[in-house]
Amino acid sequence: MCGIIGIVSEKQVLDRLIDGLERLEYRGYDSSGVAVIAREEIFHSKSTGKLNSLKNKLKHNLFDGCVGIGHTRWATHGEPTEINAHPHLTRNVAVVHNGIIENFAEFKNELLERGTRFNSQTDTEVIAKLVEEKISKEKCQPLEAVRLTIERLRGSFALCFIFRGLEDLLIATRKGSPLALGFGDKENFVSSDAASLSLFSKKICYLEEGDVVALTKDKVNIFDTSGKIVNRDIQILNSDPVNLNKGKFKHFMEKEIFEQPQVISQVLGFYLNASKETLSLPTLPEATEFKRIILIGCGTAFYSCLVAKYWFEKLCGLPTHAELASEFRYRSPVVNKDDLLVFVSQSGETADTIGALKYAREYSKNILAIINVEQSSMARLATWVFPTKAGPEIGVASTKAFVSQLIILKILNIKFASDLSTISKEQRSNLLIGLLELPRLYAEILSKNQNIRKLCKKFTRSNSVLYLGRDILYPIALEGALKLKEISYLHAEGYASGELKHGPIALIDKSMPVVALNPSTQVFEKTLSNLEEVKARKGKIILFTDEKGKELSKDLTKSIFQLPNCSDFLVPILYTLPLQLIAYYTALEKGTDVDQPRNLAKSVTVE
Ligand code: AGP
Predict the structure, then answer these.
(1) Is the peptide bond prior to 87 cis by the omega test (within 30 degrees of 0)?
(2) Please, are residues 171 and 145 in contact by the beta-carbon 8 Å criterion?
(3) Of 2, 205, 316, 456, which one is the catalytic site residue?
(4) Considering the entire predicted model, what is its pTM?
(5) Per residue in 518-535, pLDDT tens?
(6) Å from CA of 581 to ligand 1 middle
(7) Staple partner for 473: which of 136, 429, 517, 581, CB 3.0–4.6 Å?
């Protein structure tokens, strides 16, 4: 799971390789490297840690080549050391790889028997050695060497190669992992995504499964799996390159949390005509065509699916399931022709979700993708696309993308309820108008962020934190716990408060902070009873509730944070915000790397 880039040009490429890698760092950041061909030789540099350490290293090198490749890594095979960092090199070949070669051990043994030596523990080095053998022993031309090698590979890959002595050739190929081409004037580009290419070119295309491409500065030849030269659809990008500016904020995550009132307005403004109370939506199916909805995602996106499950069953009366993408595909789930499958993803590149989508496509055409990155693989695979319009999210911990997923799912929920006539016109208007309250409510909570910050001292001194919610706030408790784990490295667990007595209550003692979400909705009293059980065991309750809930919880705890009153259907969206702030301020207190936490990547492109 990594980001790869390649440039062939009449100008030097090193600086642009680094600029491109900066945009690809969301795909992994435990090491990075570049290689260029200059004066007929391969020059390379690699470094562990963030891209900055590679940049520092390169200050003392002058790589003046006009063809080169770059890589930013999230370790799969082999620790994140310099030796395991890409590019991997032989005498004649340098290669960067995104993906996993499942049968690499088989080739490694073959090569070892033939006397080949290996430096790294990676699967990628095997590819470099196989291509090298084809070139130096079997005297194949580079294109042929690559094609013969990839024929034997199992797994997923996007690969980009350069060759000693060839200063105007770059070869790339893909299967399972995405790869886009960018077309320039006397230069051409290849990269894992369109966003990084948008720095250099607005004219792009995507390679299809098994394509191999040979790029020179003047020409791009794409070969399909049969070896025939083919054209792939050219697209003109209309978005500007991603702005990597934090503005007045210390971290992207902080910026992304605080810009949510504007983001919510932007999303609503895009789809909702407030004065006419009408929706202007992309082409979407009619709910009357379906007997069941299956919502699928990973991590935070899965939690938005879980929230939507409550919404769809309640408002539309449609049986709805929320599924973890990584589990869905391998348990042979039943998919019927009259099911609607909704895939939710910020990046649109998550390998588990793409895998589940491809599985579902074998059984049904009813595939809707709710995605933030509009130029993503999922957008190309789905029948319908409903963009979340949150703008680029850089912080690894998802905040504004989650909130925009909830809003889109709520809009879809209202549309489906109208299709099925399970709500009246008046209810529909109330729901749509209700959504417009959100930016103000978010701004109100954000203005009290310092009160939440004070609460976070309690967390840094604990080993573990419990998050409790019931009904539609159960998924929000899960999301709150995930946020805290991701960026502060503190153990946290989200639990349905009614489940506490069935086991986890054993964890409660005076050192256990318990974050409780309990506004005065239909399950208020039940949850209050569950929280009394926590209090009886001396757990430290930090309660988020509304005005009425505060009044009724006075004897429960002194740590009460009052959130604005709101309609029931807005509750999960509203109660997400303080939990984002808790995670952020706790991480700040602990001094962890908020935007690029250890072991994670923004986009998880391996299964
Ligand atoms: C969220 O904070 C996480 N970084 C992670 O769980 C993420 O939501 C998950 O990997 C799914 O990503 P996607 O939305 O890009 O598919």
Answers:
(1) yes
(2) no
(3) 2
(4) 0.86
(5) 999 999 999 999 999 999
(6) 18
(7) 517
